[in-house]
Amino acid sequence: MSRSYFIVITLIILTLLSAIAGLSYGPADISPTQIFQCIAGNCPDKISQMVIWQVRVPRVLVGLVAGMGLAIAGAILQNTTRNPLADPYLFGIVSGAGLGVTIANISLSSIGLDQQLAIALPLAAFLGALLAIIIVLIIAKVLQRMEQLLLTGIAVSFMLAAVTQFILFFGEPYATNRVIFWLMGSLARVEMANFYVIATVLLITIVIITALHRQIDALLLGDESAASLGINVDKLRLLMLALCAALTATIVAYCGGIGFVGLMIPHIVRQVFGVTTLKLIIGSALIGGIFLIWVDIIARSALANAEIPIGIITSALGSIFFLFIMVKTRNIN
Can you tell me the distance from the alpha carbon of 293 to that of 152, in angstroms, rounded to the nearest whole number? Predict the structure, then answer.
């Protein structure tokens, strides 16, 4: 058995163990044996059945696919832009999605259409994320410096975040509080329907990336080299950015602003699997899913009577990781 297969099998086992840990932890005391009985359809009591299937299973599954999706989006952004610091959060995608959700939330709440939020939020998040991508690409095109995409993304991220805060400042207090809590990221209110939507978008993204993985790998050689191989660089890059926007926006719409997963996980995976797209995607999906399940467990267990928004934990870890990469890069240079 090759080293890569061994690592993948190990990660799959760790994913299953992490999922069991996520299902086991919570205010209600349910043993792993009872969890297996409920999954097999033989729950010992109705309360355990309700807690497992209506609360914990959706939470663990959404955490799994959200971690997978954010890590994959970061990996694709990094390979597409040839920038190891690219991340949906730093690229302005999360801020754009946040702006879209904020506008939809505040405006629909003000006219009493709260019931329509479940349908409107994913669409608003996608439009906001797409807006951020379009602004970044236009500015980068004007500058004619594709290597400055990340810096442009950071600037756009701050700009859209400022617009979001301006809207929240004048919004209705209840809707504003709801949006502020959402912006910090949480899996507390997710449902199985959210899992099906995110999993569908994630599956479509993986299929498209798998089909185009050789073309994406060619981008790592440089735009001119990729073009000499017959690849339409601009169209491929635009498609990948749109895919990242759709995937990130879907996750952000249901889970809120969870930053830096797309920065940290691909970096770790690259040290083990290498830089080629297919291996990077497989490794990022598995480790990203495991990572977010455990972040959610920490968020639920760190404080006795409160739950920490997971976006706070990922941002704290991500900022430290970002500084570590900058120092490491400086030492290498």
Answer: 31
Q: Is 63 a residue whose pLDDT tops 80? A: yes
pLDDT digits (tens, 9 = 90+) for 118-130: 677 778 887 888 8
Residue matched to tokens 């209506």? 54
Q: Which residue has the higher pLDDT, 301 or 59?
A: 59
Element (H, E) at 309: none
CB burial readout 130-142, b (16+ within 10 A) else e: bbbbbbbbebbee
Among 119-128, 191-200, 270-279, the range with the most confident prediction by mean pLDDT is: 191-200
**DSSP notation for 85-132:** T--TTTTTHHHHHHHHHHHHHHHHHHTT-GGGHHHHHHHHHHHHHHHH
Alpha helices in the chain (DSSP H): 3-24, 32-39, 46-50, 57-81, 93-110, 117-143, 149-170, 173-183, 192-211, 213-219, 223-228, 233-255, 261-273, 277-301, 310-332
Q: How many CB atoms lie within 10 A of CB 21?
A: 14
CA-to-CA separations, 300 to 21, 22, 235, 247, 294, in angstroms, rounded:
12, 10, 43, 26, 10
Q: Assign residue 52 a region (left: φ > 0; alpha: ψ between -120 and 50; beta: otherwise).
A: alpha
Contacts of 272 (CB under 8 A, 6+ apart): 7, 283
Query: What is the number of other CB atoms lying within 10 angstroms of the CB of residue 239?
Result: 17
Q: Tell me which residue of 270, 291, 290 sits closest to 76, measured CA to CA.
A: 270
Cα separation, 101 vs 266, whole angstroms:
27
Mean pLDDT, all residues of the chain? 84
Confidence of residue 327 (pLDDT cuts 50, 70, 90): confident
Mean pLDDT value of segment 276-285: 91
Global pTM reads: 0.87
SS3 call for 285: helix
Q: Is the dihedral of CA 202, 136, 320, 280 positive or negative?
A: positive
Dist CA 165 CA 7 (whole Å): 44
